[in-house]
Design brief:
Elements (H helix, E strand, L loop, with lengths): L4 H7 L10 H12 L10 H12 L15 E2 H13 L3 H18 L5 E2 L5 E2 L8 H11 L6 H18 L19 E2 L4 H17 L8 H11 L17 H9 L6 H12 L20 E2 L1 H4 L10 E2 H13 L5 H15 L5 E2 L20 H5 L4
Antiparallel strand pairs: 1-2, 2-3, 4-5, 6-7
């Protein structure tokens, strides 16, 4: 007999969420109402190179030059491979060493670490913090100490007990923070992809053993998420969401060129997803459920907004698939960077910088590293 969601949550309670410090909230509000984005000189490549250099503070990579002036493991995980390709492998290792030290000190892995070592989650406990951490350790060939291995194996056990049904190995039907943090999913394709990545990295790092194989989650994606055109948003929602459609290919949970081609065909046939710049989360925002703040004080934050992080990955996948639309997409993206003289976080559907009552698009995002490494 299958268990109810209430039974599952009672048997596997989450850890207490490490709340974000007041300073983080103050920085966001200050940036919204008083701070102007810092413009950088040069062309798109020169601007991006400056951002990558400036985000390195000698100890770790901050997420941006704006209000995200701290470590965010999801964002860092997304750029770590690009940073290694660009020649910053030692800085990536130093960032990992710094992060692990603070995680071990607090005995848990969270999404964020402040420069003073304080940790926190946003907006709740996440499904992807540990996967992105292990991904970054893998891509920089980090050598784990015995203490670090012991700690990470403990975190793996917690991850398995908390997020995965022991009868099936699949995700429990519960909410957690993930990349599109303003939306609420029912076991998203992105989350399944990150579990697959976690298993793969566990093997590469000599951790575990993990009770399931990467192939188990690859099969799950194909059987229950691939709809013939793209990977559906979640187990019960067949709508298009950029991170769910693209991440299986970005993280190599799926290396099939034909399925990638079909996904890119779907996007190409709907220019609204890539214009004026690539790429929007979705073109069907009403198909999703949102957290209260994403419907009120940060309206459309995770709806039809243009997210430059996904845009860089989209360009990378276009290049991998030798797509004819790559040249125009690169031209548009280059124009965006040179228009704002920075690497902005997110834009409104018309291409202007996103602003809401409580939030303004950040600038100088470390995601610039992905753009610099697209053809490497």
């Amino acid at each position: 007999m299958s268990k109810s969601l209430k039974q599952i949550l009672l048997e596997h309670p989450s850890r207490p969420v490490h709340a974000g410090p007041t300073k983080a909230a103050v920085d966001i509000l200050y940036h919204r109402y008083f701070k102007r984005s810092k413009e950088l000189k040069g062309n798109a490549e020169e601007i991006c190179r400056q951002i990558v250099e400036k985000c390195w503070n000698g100890t770790f990579y901050s997420t941006s030059l704006g209000h995200f002036s701290y470590f965010w493991v999801r964002d860092f995980g997304a750029v770590s491979k690009s940073l290694v390709k660009l020649g910053y492998e030692e800085n990536v290792r130093k960032t990992m060493q710094w992060a692990l030290r603070h995680y071990i000190e607090h005995d848990t892995v969270t999404l964020c670490i402040m420069p003073n070592g304080q940790i926190f989650d946003a907006p709740e406990e996440s499904i992807d913090a540990l996967p992105w951490l292990l991904h970054s350790l893998t891509v920089c060939d980090y050598t784990l100490s015995p203490q670090e291995k012991l700690f990470l194996n403990k975190e793996l056990k917690y991850f398995i007990d908390t997020f995965l049904d022991p009868d099936t190995g699949m995700l429990y039907p519960r909410t957690f923070a993930e990349l599109r943090d303003g939306a609420l999913y029912d076991r998203s394709a992105y989350a399944v992809t990150l579990v697959e990545r976690l298993v793969w990295c566990t093997e590469e790092l000599g951790l575990g053993p993990f009770p399931y194989t990467p192939e188990k989650y690859q099969i799950e994606l194909l059987q229950n998420y691939w709809n013939g055109e793209y990977y559906s948003a979640d187990i019960s929602n067949k709508a298009f969401s950029a991170e769910c459609a693209l991440m299986p290919f970005v993280l190599h949970a799926d290396n099939d060129a034909r399925r990638l081609s079909k996904t890119l065909d779907y996007i190409a046939a709907r220019r609204i997803l890539t214009k004026p710049y690539p790429i929007r989360y979705t073109h069907t925002p009403k198909a999703f459920r949102y957290r209260w703040w994403a419907k009120t004080i940060m309206r459309n934050y995770a709806g039809t907004t243009i997210w430059t992080w996904h845009g860089t990955y989209y360009l990378r996948l276009l290049a991998r698939n030798s797509r004819p639309e790559l040249a125009d997409a690169q031209k548009d993206f280059k124009a965006m960077i040179e228009r704002y003289k920075t690497f902005p976080e997110l834009l409104n559907p018309d291409g202007s910088l996103y602003k809401s009552i409580a939030y303004k698009s950040d600038d100088g995002m470390l995601w610039a590293a992905i753009y610099l490494a697209i053809n490497q």
